[in-house]
Specification:
It contains 38 helices and 50 strands. It has 1248 residues and is an alpha+beta fold. InterPro entries: NPHP3-like_N, P-loop_NTPase, WD40/YVTN_repeat-like_dom_sf, WD40_PAC1, WD40_repeat_CS, WD40_repeat_dom_sf, WD40_rpt.
């Protein structure tokens, strides 16, 4: 009922009051529509008693007199009838001696009108049935009343159809008592009914298209059967069996109806039969489970909620907000009126208990869409990439239409990785959803501060906020500590959080919770309560005061007292002295629990604590595993854990792994507040655990560890594989295989000789193959590439031999990833025979397995080059950049994507990063290697997680034209961008927020930007022919623009010492500037002639600048004085296209359009070798390897050649690949190429 309209000629101001069953219903007046609307949805039933009161209190000078009122009553049945007829209900009365008409306008519905016509048709036929009408009155009315009112929630036609079918069945069943002719029709009708519940509860809500024709047939058949039945009964006695044979005229209609029922039965069985629907459900659920990989133990737990009687106001408020539409005036007292709610509080205040209670309450009324309880010491629950896939899965299980939509999206894109693109999947699947739940569904995330990092948390919150804003049936509750990044997000979006520390009832709740817990201690320890409770008012008050509102204090206190036979003395000791800050009192309680049970002098105790706390971020281990790792007797470990049971517990959900009761305990053990005698040295713990892990793998890994009988079955087809893994691979071996590299690379310090010896033996021997075998049967093969990349990235920790072994191992894993993942036995059968024969891995394997299949001809001796694999973009490549560790390459393209590549193989890593809506012009890595930043013609900048490829936050918007240049501060905290809108913007890399206003000064596009090495200044160059220096702190120009160029600036950069700036333009000029004074250093670097300047570069030491021109000249300049070092370097008779320094700065190489490559010695200024002949067309790019031993060249003859820098001779044959720009990887093993000349310029700028 959308509203009530009152029509009257009276001029008296009046109010309208609506009452239902004597209870007032809040009304709001809509002046534009002149109606009073009910705040809440009204569900009408025929028995409702509704009253409308019109009241006024005329007053003079504030004094009321002669109250006026009028009242009309209306029955629910009257409104229902008006509802079905789609008409307005008029009721007349008088007010203030004037006629008044009150209009009730139920919401019209064409679907209901059509359905109602069906009902009327049946009813008209049934009314002629005489006595039978009385027998089936209830069946006739129930479909109308019971189903009709809620048709807005379900498919109205289908629901009414099943209602009619049920009524028909009841009538037929009753008539069959007197007439056997209809018995078969009863059976046919009854066969249809079992489908009704299933369809009404699930399938019809989906609005599955395949159901539509079947539903129509069902309704038509129901009406036709009911009409026939009524006519049939009318012609016969309804109270006695028939005495005469059935009239022939009735046989044919019954036969036709049975034929239709048979067909309908088949159609229903094909479309929505119980078995089919269950099968579809199972298929979709299996698909979602497989692709989304939800975290099972991240759901709420019923037994972890608040103690009954505590936190009731908080829980009730939040549940009310979650499930109802709350008036703004009321809501703003505690809650925000948005569709996302933030609840926050300090550690130990009871946030997770409240979250569990809220979830339980909402789940009971079937409105919990999903929950995710984060936990820092659980790897699966501490990664933000797991949150949305898990919530998507749970929401899909709750709402069938959403499940079908998500399943379809996943089927349409088999390559979609939900862990990387969960935000896109979440938002797109919700947006395309047509059937919405009738009531709000709520998503709950607890302890968000224990998950991910600020950047990924901000991204997750952004997706949640968008989803809730776009879908009015969806709400979210986020519970966390008030961390800066989380608070900043909600403040930025004007969302007011609820501070649990400001709860008015917290002290009362703490007091009650203390009473309950102390009684539990008394009952457990059988403490006498005579003549008074052992915790009287005085002690109770002390405990409450010391808790400071932290429930965890009371919980830990009770757990600690449980350990004593007589808890009174330890309680008195704990309550001695004045109360301090809540966190200090909590730390004192932790320390008391440790001191009373642990001997600080015992080396065994320290060893156990380092093992337990050290493995916590990865996976909690049980007593047996800790004992096996440390070499201690299991009884010692069990006693240690038992003694600290007030702080630790054994989690049965993860094989009795030892966990802390609260994350603050983990923080205490490793933090500065814990005394050194008990503090866990995390660095030492990682060293010990890396040693344990390597020793365990060397000791326990073996060939065919699971005893597989055949190689004919893939891992997925081995029925009992998980049981075999559990029986044959010990818990510590599983842990070691997964996490050894995490501990080994946790700190940058060089490793000991013992660990290096262990690691070397592992990487070069058969144990490496056995490790891959274990990962294969565990389904964790990608872990191998992650582990080996860590070793390579931490090259300073290990000697060169180990790093090379890790590189070979990584190449082996990446090359044979598919067979290794598919079948463990095929590591030996299908992979090893094709391994390059020069690898130590092959030599070891052949010695152990001499009967391996051998490749007779064409066997690789070493890994092939990878340049031919660098294909994937569908448009021109605009930019390339190596990651700081040299393991990956990122590219951007006119196809609007960014792609990450594996530098070892050239294979794309994941799918292209999509998000930009136009050409991607520039791409860089942040110096710390964590992020990729891209700039586009769509005027935006995007930040991507370099490890996962997931977007970090929302696009950075603010530029009004193309973003054409990017740079990142040396500490990776800030991003600068140059745009065709003539401005430079500075961005906070963590939050994505712009810092201040744009830097304005250029009068043309800003083509190039760069940070100074110390991060204090920015240099920029633009199409206004000027170079500008900016102070980062003040955001103001440093001095006047640097002028002198007569054409636009293409590139600017700082020397490595930050003392000089160079700028290169389009007019044969390279200028060196004093970075401190902003003045030119000497004259511009130029030569006589007409050739245009093509390139410029600083030498690696930052002392010299080399430039090249179109007119056959290369000049070498002193970067300090700007004077030529000597005469121009000559040797070609054609245009120079590219130029580069060798890494040691001793040589220069240049390429030309005609083909030959010339190398010069920078000291004697004469060619070091003759021209490098081999290309048949123009050479457009040259590059030195980092070690200076090789030169790479790219030519328009569509080849890339590699030359020996010392002899000038070609190394192997040419690589047949078209490229216009080249660069070596940092380790010199690979070359990256692009198809545009601008690539080299851009990469040089990034490197600078």
């Amino acid at each position: 009922m959308p509203g009530v309209c009152v029509e009257s000629d009276t001029t008296t101001q009046f109010q309208v009051e609506l009452q239902i069953e004597g209870n007032g219903i809040r009304m709001e007046y809509n002046e534009r529509a002149s109606i009073w609307k009910t705040v809440h949805h009204l569900e009408l039933t025929s028995a409702l008693k509704i009253a409308i009161s019109i009241k006024a209190e005329p007053s003079v000078d504030g004094s009321s007199f002669s109250p006026l009122d009028a009242r009309v009553d209306v029955r629910g049945l009257e409104l229902i009838e008006a509802f079905w007829d789609s008409r307005t209900l008029f009721i007349a009365t008088t007010f203030n001696n004037q006629p008044v008409t009150i209009n009730f306008k139920p919401r019209p519905s064409p679907a209901l009108k059509t359905t109602y016509e069906h009902i009327i048709k049946v009813q008209e036929a049934m009314t002629r049935c005489g006595q039978l009408m009385n027998d089936v009155a209830e069946q006739r009315i129930n479909p109308l009343v019971r189903y009709g009112i809620s048709l807005a929630e379900v498919n109205p036609t289908a629901k009414m159809g099943f209602g009619l079918m049920k009524a028909v069945f009841d009538v037929l069943n009753d008539q069959s008592k007197y007439d056997e002719i209809v018995s078969d029709l009863v059976i046919d009708t009854g066969r249809i009914l079992p489908f009704s519940n299933r369809i009404l509860e699930d399938a019809l809500c989906d609005e599955v298209e395949i159901l539509d024709p079947v539903i129509k047939d069902l309704c038509n058949l129901a009406v036709e059967t009911a009409t026939f039945l009524c006519e049939y009964v009318r012609k016969r006695s309804t109270n006695a069996p028939l005495e005469y044979p059935t009239v022939l005229e009735d046989k044919e209609p019954i036969r036709n109806l049975r034929t239709q029922f048979k067909k309908l039965d088949e159609d229903l069985d094909a479309a929505v039969s119980g078995a089919t629907v269950r099968a579809v459900d199972n298929i979709e659920n299996d698909l979602l489970m497989k692709r989304l990989c939800p975290i099972d133990n991240a759901n709420y737990q019923r037994d972890r909620g608040c103690v009954d009687g505590t936190r009731t106001q908080v829980i009730n408020d939040i549940v009310k907000w979650s499930t109802e539409q709350i008036d703004k005036d009321v809501a703003t007292q505690y809650l925000n009126v948005d569709r996302i709610l933030w609840v926050y509080g300090m550690p130990g205040i009871g946030k997770s208990a409240i979250a569990n209670s809220i979830c339980c309450r909402i789940d009971q009324i079937k409105q919990l869409g999903g929950s995710f309880f984060c936990r820092r010491d659980d790897p699966a629950r501490s990664e933000t990439k797991s949150v949305l896939p898990t919530l998507i899965y749970r929401l899909a299980r709750m709402h069938a239409p959403y499940r079908s939509r998500v399943a379809q999206v996943l089927r349409d894109d088999p390559q979609l990785a939900p862990q990387l693109a969960s935000g896109e999947l979440f938002l797109s699947s919700l947006q395309s959803l047509k059937a919405h739940p009738p009531r709000p569904l709520v998503l709950v995330i607890d302890a968000l501060d224990e998950c991910g990092d600020p950047g990924t948390r901000r991204q997750l919150l952004g997706h949640l906020l968008k989803a809730c804003q776009r879908n009015q049936w969806l709400k979210s509750i986020v519970i966390s500590r008030p961390e800066h990044d989380i608070r900043s997000f909600f403040n930025t979006n004007d969302i007011v959080g609820r501070d649990l520390g400001q709860d008015d009832n917290s002290r009362t709740d703490i007091r009650y919770f203390t009473e309950v817990r102390m009684k539990m201690v008394a009952d457990e320890r059988q403490v006498s309560q005579d003549p008074e409770p052992w915790v009287g008012e005085r002690r109770l008050g002390h405990i409450v005061n010391r808790s400071g509102g932290l429930f965890i204090f009371v919980e830990m206190l009770s757990q600690s007292l449980m350990r004593f036979r007589n808890p009174k003395p330890p309680l008195e000791r704990l309550l001695e002295g004045p109360s301090e800050e809540a966190s200090i009192e909590l730390h004192k309680l932790y320390l008391a629990a440790i001191e009373s049970r642990v001997n600080a002098e015992e080396a065994e105790s320290r060893l156990i604590s380092r093992a337990v706390i050290g493995v916590a971020p990865h996976r909690a281990l049980c007593d047996k595993s800790i004992a096996a790792f440390t070499g201690l007797e299991i009884g010692i470990v069990i006693s240690w854990v038992d003694d600290l049971s007030s702080l630790l517990y054994r989690d049965k959900t993860i094989q009795n792994g030892i966990r802390v009761r609260h994350i603050s305990i983990l923080e205490y053990f490793t933090g500065r507040f814990c005394p050194l005698d008990f503090r866990v040295d995390v660095k030492q713990a990682d060293v010990e655990l890396s040693t344990y892990s390597l020793q365990t793998m060397m000791r326990e890994l073996r060939f065919n560890i699971c005893g597989l009988e055949t190689s004919c079955l893939p891992n997925s087809d081995i029925n009992n594989l998980s049981e075999r893994v559990r029986e044959n691979i010990s818990d510590i071996l599983q842990y070691s295989c997964l996490h050894w590299s995490s501990h080994l690379c946790a700190n940058p310090d060089p490793e000991s000789g013992e660990i290096c010896q262990l690691l070397g033996a592992f990487l070069r021997g058969e144990h490496f193959l056995y490790w891959l075998e274990v990962l294969s049967v565990m389904g964790k093969v990608p872990t191998a590439s992650v582990a080996l990349r860590r070793i390579i990235a931490c090259s300073r920790k290990f000697d060169e031999q180990i790093v090379n072994l890790a590189k070979d191992g990584l190449r082996f894993v990446l090359a044979f990833l598919a067979p290794i993942s598919t079948s463990a036995p095929h590591i030996y059968i299908s992979v090893l025979p094709f391994t390059p024969s020069e690898l130590s891995l092959w030599k070891t394997a052949y010695r152990l397995f001499p009967n391996l299949m051998r490749v007779g001809e064409g066997r690789m001796t070493k890994w092939p080059g990878s340049s031919n694999l660098w294909k994937g973009h569908t448009g021109s490549v605009n930019g390339l950049a190596y990651s700081p560790d040299g393991l990956t390459v990122v590219s951007c393209s006119n196809d609007k994507t960014v792609q990450i590549w594996d530098a070892a193989t050239g294979a794309p890593i994941g799918e292209p990063l999509k998000g930009h809506t136009s050409y991607v012009e520039s791409v860089i890595y942040s110096p710390d290697g964590r992020n990729i930043i891209s700039g586009s013609w769509d005027n935006t900048i995007r930040i991507w997680d370099a490890a996962t490829g997931a977007p970090v936050g929302e696009p950075l918007t603010g530029h009004t034209s193309r973003v054409v240049s990017l740079a990142c501060s040396p500490d990776s905290r800030y991003i600068i961008s140059g745009s065709n809108d003539d401005t430079i913007r500075i961005w906070d890399a963590e939050t994505g927020a712009p810092i201040g206003d744009p830097l304005k000064g250029h009068t043309g596009s800003v083509k190039s930007v760069a940070y100074s090495p110390n991060g204090r200044n920015i240099v920029s160059g633009g199409t206004d022919n000027t170079v500008r220096i900016w102070d980062v702190a003040t955001r103001s120009p440093v001095g006047e623009p640097l002028k002198g160029h007569t054409n636009y600036i293409e590139i600017v950069g700082y020397s490595s010492d930050g003392q000089s700036i160079f700028s290169r333009c389009n007019d044969r000029i390279v200028q060196i500037w004093d970075a401190a004074r902003g003045v030119p250093v000497g004259e511009p670097l130029k030569v006589l002639g007409s050739g245009r300047n093509l390139g410029a570069s600083y030498s690696p030491a930052g002392r010299n600048v080399v430039s090249l021109f179109f007119d056959e000249i290369v000049l070498l300049w002193d970067g300090t004085t700007a004077n030529p070092v000597d005469k121009p370097l000559k040797g070609h008779t054609s245009f120079y296209k590219d130029i580069a320094y060798s890494p040691d700065g001793l040589n220069i190489i240049r390429g030309t359009y005609q083909g030959p490559i010339q190398m010069f010695d920078t000291d004697p200024k004469k060619p070091a070798t003759g021209p490098l002949m081999g290309h048949t067309w123009d050479v457009v790019s040259v590059a030195y390897s980092p070690d200076g031993q090789k030169i790479a060249t790219a030519s328009l003859d569509k080849t890339i050649r590699i030359w020996d820098a010392a002899t000038g001779l070609p190394i192997d044959g040419p690589l047949e690949e078209y490229a216009r720009s080249l660069a070596y990887s940092p380790d010199g093993r690979h070359i990256v190429s692009g198809e545009e000349q601008t690539f080299l310029v851009r990469r040089n700028r990034v490197c600078e």
